[in-house]
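Subject: design request, 417 residues
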C-alpha cells in the first residue's frame, strides 16, 4: 500500500459517499469512487448484509473453498468489491432508519443505490428524502430498466444481456446465443453511473445544487450494441454473426493455430499485404478477390479459409512472430489467469493482489485495479475492509454523526443498526 503522506492526493479525496448498493453493479460504481479517493460508507442490512457475502468461492484459514467452512471465511466477491469502504449496518425497514439516513446525507456529497425501481422511495431513502436533508446531494440510481420503469422490474446481468441483443452479436450464425463470460452489463452501467456522478459534481460547483442521476443497465448495454448498425448490415446482405471473425472488416478476427489461437488485424492495404507475406503467399495481393478492401470483404469466407489453413499448421507463437515481422497486429489468445499477470497491467496496477486480512498468505488472488493514471494524483484503496456487518458503526454513527453510546445501544436494541 502506498504511503499517502509520501504520495500525491487522490482526485476525489474530501468527498463522502453513502453506498446503499449490493450485488455487483452498484458496488462496482462505489468501488470506482473509493479507488479515486472518495470516502465510501457502505450501508448493509444487519440481518444479512450484501448479497455478495454469500457468493462462492470463499477464502480463509483453509485457503480457497467452494463452501464456507469457518465463520471468518470471506467471499472473494465481497473481498474484491468492499475494498476501500467503511461498513455500517442499517435496517432500512425499521422505524427510525429514515432519520438516520437523512443524518448521513447531511454529512455526505453522494448517494448511490441500486434497488429495483421505486424501492428506495418506498423505504424512505429515495432522492426526495436525501434532497430534503441536503439539497446539494448528488444521488445516483442504478437499476435494470431505469428509475422511471414500472415498480418491481428485477434485472440480473444475464437478463440484460438477453434483452439487449448482445447475445446474438457473438457466435456462429446457426449457433445458440452466446452469454458473455464477464458480467458486462453489471460492469458497464456503473461506469456510466460514475461519469454521471462526476458530471453532476461539476455542475454543482457552478450552481450549488445537487441532482438525481438515473442509469439503466439495459440502456447502457443496448447503447453499446447500437454502435453497429444491424439493419444496415442486413440490408447489405452481410451476416451479423460471423463467429470468431468480423467479415465486414476482413481479415479481422481469431484463427486457430496448432496449439491455440491467434488474433490478427489486416484491414488496410499495407496490413493485408503484410499478412499475405507472412503466409508465404504474396501473390494473393494480385488475386482480384483479395486485391482491394471491398473485394476482401466481398470474398471474406474464401479469404478466411486460406488464413485458417495457414494458421493451423503453426504454433501460436510462430504465427504471431511471422505476422509481427510484417507489421501486422497480432496476439495470442490468452487465458484470463495469464492475462491478469501481464507485467504491463501489473506495473500500472490495473490488476492487483487481494488477500484475506487475517490470512493473507492462504491464496494468490488478483482482482481489478483502477485503470486510470493521473500526472498529479494517485489512485488506490485504503486498508479499510468491512469483514463484519456494521464493523464501522461506532466510527460513523458516533464520531461522524455525534450519536452517543446510549443512543447507539438503543438503536441496536430496536434493530435499526
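Subject: RE: design request

Done. Sequence follows.
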Amino acid at each position: 500500500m502506498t504511503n499517502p503522506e509520501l504520495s500525491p492526493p487522490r482526485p476525489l479525496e474530501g468527498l463522502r459517499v453513502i453506498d446503499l448498493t449490493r450485488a455487483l453493479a452498484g458496488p462496482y460504481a462505489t468501488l470506482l469512487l473509493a479507488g479515486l479517493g472518495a470516502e465510501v460508507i457502505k450501508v448493509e442490512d444487519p440481518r444479512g448484509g450484501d448479497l455478495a457475502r454469500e457468493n462462492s468461492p470463499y477464502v480463509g484459514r483453509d485457503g480457497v473453498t467452494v463452501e464456507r467452512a469457518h465463520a471468518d471465511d470471506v467471499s472473494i466477491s465481497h473481498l474484491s468489491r468492499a475494498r476501500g469502504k467503511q461498513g455500517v449496518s442499517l435496517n432500512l425497514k425499521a422505524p427510525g432508519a429514515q432519520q438516520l439516513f437523512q443524518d448521513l446525507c447531511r454529512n455526505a456529497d453522494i448517494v448511490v443505490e441500486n434497488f429495483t425501481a421505486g424501492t428506495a422511495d418506498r423505504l424512505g431513502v429515495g432522492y426526495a428524502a436525501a434532497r430534503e436533508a441536503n439539497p446539494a446531494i448528488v444521488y445516483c440510481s442504478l437499476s435494470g430498466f431505469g428509475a422511471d420503469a414500472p415498480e418491481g422490474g428485477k434485472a440480473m446481468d444475464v437478463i440484460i444481456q438477453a434483452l439487449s441483443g448482445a447475445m446474438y452479436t457473438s457466435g456462429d450464425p446457426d449457433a445458440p446465443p452466446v452469454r458473455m463470460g464477464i458480467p458486462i452489463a453489471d460492469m458497464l452501467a456503473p461506469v456510466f453511473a460514475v461519469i454521471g456522478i462526476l458530471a453532476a459534481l461539476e455542475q454543482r460547483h457552478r450552481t450549488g445544487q445537487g441532482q438525481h442521476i438515473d442509469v439503466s443497465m439495459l440502456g447502457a448495454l443496448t447503447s453499446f450494441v447500437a454502435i453497429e448498425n444491424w439493419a444496415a448490415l442486413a440490408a447489405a446482405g452481410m451476416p451479423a454473426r460471423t463467429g470468431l471473425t468480423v467479415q465486414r472488416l476482413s481479415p479481422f478476427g481469431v484463427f486457430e493455430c496448432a496449439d491455440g489461437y491467434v488474433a490478427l488485424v489486416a484491414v488496410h492495404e499495407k496490413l493485408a499485404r503484410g499478412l499475405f507475406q507472412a503466409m508465404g503467399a504474396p501473390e494473393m495481393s494480385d488475386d482480384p478477390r483479395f486485391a482491394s478492401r471491398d473485394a476482401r470483404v466481398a470474398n471474406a469466407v474464401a479469404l478466411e479459409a486460406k488464413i485458417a489453413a495457414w494458421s493451423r499448421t503453426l504454433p501460436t507463437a510462430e504465427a504471431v512472430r511471422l505476422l509481427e515481422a510484417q507489421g501486422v497486429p497480432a496476439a495470442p489468445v490468452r487465458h484470463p489467469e495469464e492475462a491478469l499477470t501481464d507485467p504491463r497491467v501489473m506495473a500500472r496496477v490495473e490488476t492487483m493482489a487481494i488477500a484475506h486480512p487475517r490470512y493473507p498468505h492462504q491464496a494468490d488472488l488478483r482482482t481489478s485495479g483502477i485503470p486510470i493514471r493521473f500526472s498529479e494524483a494517485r489512485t488506490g484503496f485504503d486498508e479499510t475492509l468491512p469483514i463484519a456487518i456494521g464493523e464501522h458503526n461506532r466510527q460513523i454513527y458516533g464520531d461522524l454523526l455525534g450519536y452517543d453510546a446510549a443512543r447507539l445501544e438503543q438503536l441496536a436494541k430496536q434493530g435499526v443498526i
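The chain is about 35% helix and 15% strand.
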